[in-house]
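Bumping with the actual sequence this time:
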Amino acid sequence: MGNTTEQMTIMSNSSPEIASQATQEIKYGEREIEQGQLITFPNPRVGRRYNVSITLPEFTCKCPFSGYPDFATIHINYIPDAKVVELKALKLYINSYRDRYISHEESANQILDDFIAACDPLEVNVKADFTPRGNVHTVVEVRHIK
């Protein structure tokens, strides 16, 4: 029984150190999000007008006034010109908002501005449909036509 207690003590003494080290290092997903930027590739059908519809249901940011988390579904509909946005890069870019203090209105407008800067589409519509909080449901829709 003495060995078991000794082993348990050793294990319990080492666990906080391991947990502490693990929480201090940046995880690979956090690093990808931190380094994330919108990446594009050549449109395989330049000259053909077609719509690309993307739904990102896990958008989060923080209210710049209260610090409470805000959750939204982001809808991006665009007609590409010469470039198309790579979807994994878009996901990482959207995830980069999770710790940002930003209003609903500014987040939708910033996503639109960054999307235009990355791929310069013929048309793009960004709709941010925020989950109701405090009995308020906000939907912000912004549009750009070239």
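The tokens above came from a reply further down the thread. Residues 4-15 have pLDDT under 50 and may be disordered.
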